[in-house]
Amino acid sequence: EWPKAEERVRQYLKSPDRLVARPGSNMAGLYHAGAEASAAPLIFFTELHCIAEPECLKELLCYLEGKEMAGACVNTYGDYSNVFSSVEAELFDAIFEEWITQDTSKKVLLRGVAIKRGPYFEAGGFRERYNRLCDGLLGARLEELGYELGYAEKAKLQHYYSTRYSQLLLPVREKVVNECTFRLEDTTGLSSRFWGVPSDWALRQNFN
């Protein structure tokens, strides 16, 4: 329950920490609320089930120092307690090795990414309407605007993976709905330029 959770969280707050609440918002809306409440020139985003190493932010700032970048994603390693979580970790690691060599659109990773305030808001931030698609959408917008994100390999955090299939059902379903919604509303062609056009999506026109 929120009152009890708030009480526990406040025990760990130190100056100038703040706890920002936005009742009724989804995941993307809460990320964006945090960004709006921040006055920092660089905003760091992470997930609830991640724990940063003590030197993570220091290494991140060292990486960005002197670079003309809009931000960077950090390195992650998994914590997995069963076969299901280890398989999910292996799948992500394989994709991650590919993503870090690609352009900015692939580097807005919610488990750990820092983005400068100006580029974040210029690109529209994390958009509540497209919730689970918010990271990919922001990455695509940043790339279109000409911004670059790097990869701070020495900045590390630990990511705790799902332990059973049921934990992934709702997030996956939400992301599919969010992507379909954006594709229907996208008048700029961004979705097809960055994510292509799935064959099933192309065939849907036959039923209109």
Number of helices: 9
Uncertain stretches: none
Averaged pLDDT: 93
Q: Which sequence of SSEs, written as H and E, runs from N to C?
A: HHEEHEHEHHEHHH
Main sheet makeup: 5 strands, mixed
How many beta-strand segments? Answer: 5
Q: Radius of gyration over alpha carbons?
A: 18 Å
Strand order of the largest sheet: 1-4-3-5-2
Name the beta content range: 15-25%
End-to-end separation in angstroms reads 45 Å
* Helical/strand content category: alpha+beta
Give an account of the 3D structure:
The chain has 208 residues and is α+β, with helices and mostly antiparallel strands. The chain is built from nine helices and five strands. It has helices at residues 2-10, 27-37, 56-64, 83-99, 117-122, 134-144, 166-185, 190-195, 199-203; strands at residues 42-45, 50-52, 71-79, 113-116, 149-160. The longest helix is centred in the C-terminal third of the chain and has 20 residues, at 166-185. The radius of gyration is 18 Å and the shape is globular. 25% of the residues are buried. The mean pLDDT is 93.
